[in-house]
């Protein structure tokens, strides 16, 4: 092997390393973008984010007063700290469309568990 072709080989090899590193960077950044996009459209995450927001907290207080401190399912009194937000139309079937305050009721954690994803008429 002449010195010339060894140099060529070394150059090709270093170019290959650069390409591989670039590819790895692109792959990582694509993964990050995908993860961000997923978290934006994940309806459960979207809901949790809303619930932690001022709008969500304010809604919960108002809804608690509107329900006169009672569980929408069993009608028994409910402690504000215990109240969980129930999706009348379940998130799993309706996705982001179920994330609307008019679709929410405050329930005892136990009542919420019992109902699960069954659709109940609370009116
Ligand atoms: Zn209840």
Topology overview:
Blueprint (H helix, E strand, L loop, with lengths): L2 H39 L1 H10 L1 H13 L17 E4 L3 H4 L9 E4 L1 H7 L8
Antiparallel strand pairs: 1-2
Helix pairs in contact: 2-3
The protein binds zinc ion.
Zinc ion binds next to loops.
Largest beta-sheet details: 2 strands, antiparallel
User: Which stretches are low in confidence, meaning pLDDT under 50 for 5 or more residues running?
Assistant: none
Overall structural class, as computed from helix and strand content, comes to mainly alpha
According to CATH, the fold-level topology of the largest domain is His-Me finger endonuclease fold
Q: Provide the residue-averaged pLDDT.
A: 92
CATH architectural designation of the largest domain: 3-Layer(aba) Sandwich
Within the largest sheet, what's the order of strands?
A: 1-2
Number of strands: 2
Name the helicity range.
55-70%
- What is the CATH homology-level superfamily of the largest domain? His-Me finger endonucleases
Oligomer: single chain
- What gyration radius follows from the Cα positions, in whole Å? 27 Å
Give the end-to-end Cα distance, rounded to a whole number of Å: 87 Å
Which cofactor or ligand species appear?
zinc ion
When the domains are counted, the total is 2
Give the SSE order as H and E letters: HHHEHEH
